[in-house]
């Protein structure tokens, strides 16, 4: 099965507020962009991924991610994360009604194509499926098979909410890089231990959290 991934990204100036103790206001927008660039690059390098649509209103991020090969969908609803994802999924389905779609977080800087392949192969078995984040509370990927609506319920306790919505939890092993989203300094340390992509490595090299 070939997938279209939908990746949401809020304006960089407001992104990653929970990283404030690891990176100051002047640094966080660049970090959020680097995470998104490494996420999009790894997604586009995954054979099961046909294309990537990033839903964002950030002009700089839009230019940089389009340069990597992503399609940019304006965040027209302006109604928060789930509205943005539903809008982008509808735009994808308008172009390809029979396509498989998955929402993927933009903050997976350690993402590895082989591991994303394993998750998408597992997701392909179900009408809707999701992968819990490394903390076990949230979600990093939510999939919808052809003909199924995405019905995203990201946000606080999204693992429980996606399960309650009828999506099947993906339990495949050795997919840490797909689960390791970066919200806090501890998350960033964990991602650096897994091994991050080149833009995040560069953007974090002078941060105390990187141990330098
Ligand atoms: N397009 C779009 N993306 C969003 C919106 N809200 C959040 N996102 C993205 O959804 C993912 C999870 O968002 P959050 O956890 O709310 O925000 P964050 O920037 O990752 O972190 P915090 O500021 O610490 O909450 C990130 O990739 C965000 O950039 C929105 O309103 N529109
Ligand atoms: C929005 C979510 O991600 P984050 O952990 O980045 O808040 C989520 O897990 O549903």
Automatic annotation (TrEMBL):
Transmembrane segments: none annotated. HAMAP family: CofC (MF_02114). The lineage of its organism: Bacteria, Bacillati, Actinomycetota, Actinomycetes, Kitasatosporales. The gene is cofC. It is an enzyme of class 2 (transferase). Guanylyltransferase that catalyzes the activation of phosphoenolpyruvate (PEP) as enolpyruvoyl-2-diphospho-5'-guanosine, via the condensation of PEP with GTP. It is involved in the biosynthesis of coenzyme F420, a hydride carrier cofactor. Belongs to the CofC family. Its EC number is 2.7.7.105. NCBIfam families: F420_cofC (TIGR03552). It comes from Streptomyces actuosus. Keywords: GTP-binding, Nucleotide-binding, Nucleotidyltransferase, Transferase. GO terms for molecular function: phospholactate guanylyltransferase activity. This is Phosphoenolpyruvate guanylyltransferase. Pathway: Cofactor biosynthesis; coenzyme F420 biosynthesis. It comes from the Bacteria. The keyword rRNA-binding does not apply. InterPro entries: CofC (IPR002835), Nucleotide-diphossugar_trans (IPR029044). SUPFAM superfamilies: Nucleotide-diphospho-sugar transferases. The keyword Nucleotidyltransferase applies. It catalyses: phosphoenolpyruvate + GTP + H(+) = enolpyruvoyl-2-diphospho-5'-guanosine + diphosphate. Phosphoenolpyruvate binds at residues 139, 155, 158.
């Amino acid at each position: 099965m070939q997938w279209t991934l939908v990746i949401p990204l809020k304006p960089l100036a407001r992104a990653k507020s929970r990283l404030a103790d690891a990176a100051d206001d002047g640094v966080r927008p660049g970090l959020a962009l680097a995470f998104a660039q490494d996420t999009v690059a790894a997604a586009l390098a995954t054979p099961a991924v046909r294309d990537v649509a990033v839903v964002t209103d950030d002009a700089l991020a839009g230019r940089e991610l389009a340069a990597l090969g992503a399609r940019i969908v304006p965040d027209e609803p302006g109604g928060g994360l789930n509205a943005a994802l539903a809008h982008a999924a509808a735009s994808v389905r308008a172009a390809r009604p029979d396509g498989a779609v998955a929402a993927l977080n933009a903050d997976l800087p350690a993402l590895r194509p082989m591991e994303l392949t394993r998750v998408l192969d597992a997701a392909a078995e179900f009408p809707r499926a999701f992968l819990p984040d490394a903390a076990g509370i949230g979600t990093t990927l939510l999939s919808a098979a052809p003909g199924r609506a995405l019905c995203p319920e990201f946000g606080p306790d999204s693992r429980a909410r996606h399960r309650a919505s009828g999506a099947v939890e993906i339990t495949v092993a050795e997919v840490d890089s797909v689960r390791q989203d970066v919200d806090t300094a501890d998350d960033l340390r964990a991602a650096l231990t897994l091994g991050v992509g080149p833009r995040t490595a560069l953007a974090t090299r002078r941060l105390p959290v990187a141990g330098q």
